[in-house]
Amino acid sequence: MAQQIRGYTGYDHFLVTSAGAFVAHVEINRPAKLNAFFEAMWLELRAVFRQLSVDPDVRAIILSGAGERAFTAGLDVQAASQGPPLVTDESLDGARTAALLRRHIAEFQECITAVEKCEKPVICVLHGVSLGLAIDISCCADVRICSKDTKFAVKEVDIGLAADIGTLARLPKVVSSFSWVKDVCLSARFFGAAEALAVGFVSQVHESKAAALDAALNMAKLIAAKSPVAVQGTKELLNHSRDHSVEENLSYTGIWNSAALQSNDVKVALLSGIQKMKPRFEKL
Question: Primary place of residence (predicted)?
Fold first, then answer.
């Protein structure tokens, strides 16, 4: 059994264990409910990834769902029915109700965005039922892989709303076809691993969850062995590139590397190649 990392044992809905040197494994841990989310869970997700982001003992992260049935079935509809947006204060007028809902949605968005803002690369392993919030969360990850049994859907229109936690903003930038994005978002239809691979939503498909986790671990260990200055800078600059023009990104890269190139990691990496030795990089 994997050992929980000291300092991460206080979370109720996430298991954070060591998967190798400088590699953390985060599991959504509500398997009896298909890892479906309610408010306390997304608040914890933000806390977990904010902590991992600045942890010098972590250089790469694997994110998966506990159990064999689901990465996550999305929102726990029963729990959601007991609070906003389905339950609001009837004494408030429309404008004040809207203000409360706007704040609620903004906080929810921020919690999921914590995965994207985490300084460390995140490899998301999807399997089984992966609906709604599964797409929001995985779009925030840096790499997505899945098992061949994964059943995906952007499910929100089936519960009477437009997806509002990040899928509509990020999915068009993740995959190769805007037509396909509208197809799955407007219809809420299911799609499988082969289709997800064909459009570039995932980069690998494996026979089972175990095989996908093994592939993620190998990838995470490889990343964790690199310079953390270089890896974290690469993630930052690629995300900036996605959201800005080439000219803006070149300028930002120049500013970023004017500081990063002063790292000892450059010398260590170059010397290791010449000396044919495995480089060892200081914590960041």
Answer: other
Two tokens at 54?
Answer: 């600045």
Residue 259: closest CA among 230, 280, 282: 230
CATH of segment(s) 14-224: 3.90.226.10
Is there a contact between 115 and 140 (Cβ–Cβ < 8 Å)?
Answer: yes
Within the chain, all domains assigned CATH 1.10.12.10 are found at 228-275
Cα gap 238→252, rounded to integer Å: 11
63 touches 122 (CB < 8 A): yes
CB of 36 closer than 8 Å to CB of 13: no
Reported as a single tens digit per residue, the pLDDT across 17-64 is: 999 999 999 999 999 999 999 999 999 999 999 999 999 999 999 999
Domain with CATH 3.90.226.10 in the chain: 14-224
Give CA–CA dist 29/26, Å, rounded: 9
HEC-encoded secondary structure of 64-118: EECCCCEEECCECHHHHCCCCCCCCCCCCCHHHHHHHHHHHHHHHHHHHHHHHHC
Please state, in angstroms and rounded to a whole number, the distance separating the CA atoms of residues 232 and 240: 12
pLDDT(154) > 90: yes
Report if pTM > 0.85: yes
> Is domain 228-275 in CATH 1.20.1440.230, yes or no?
no
Strand order in the sheet with 122-126: 14-20, 23-28, 60-65, 122-126, 143-147, 204-206
Nearest to 105 by CA among 68, 136, 148: 136
Amino acid in position 110: E
Q: How far apart are CA 82 and CA 107, in angstroms?
A: 18
